[in-house]
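# nightly structure sweep
# worker-07 picked up a monomer target from the shared queue
# config: single-sequence mode, recycle default, output format = structure tokens
# input follows
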Amino acid sequence: MKAGEHIYIYLKHDSGFKFTHHGIYIGNDKVIHYWGNKVRKTTKSKFICGKTIHIKKYKESYASSRVVKRAKKRLGEKNYNFVFNNCEHFAEWCKTGKHKSKQVNEAHEKTAKYL
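# output follows
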């Protein structure tokens, strides 16, 4: 795994709701991610919680050094919002400059079918 990679794990809430948790690997066994309403730096092992780690592939993204700088710039940020600014939004923005969340978009599409 290289610094600047968008990594994620699959998790399951106590209610049974399945979701993914995202972060940016910055090297030296460290990950920057939204956790507990704040952008934090943790160890990779603490981030993965014993789960299998996945790397999101991109056709186009910023250079690794720029991704790491973008992630570090947001350390300490406290603007978490499940729908509008979650861990996936953060990782996507660090990699591409685009503020989006696939899992939020998919949930919105499923909900729209029933309206």
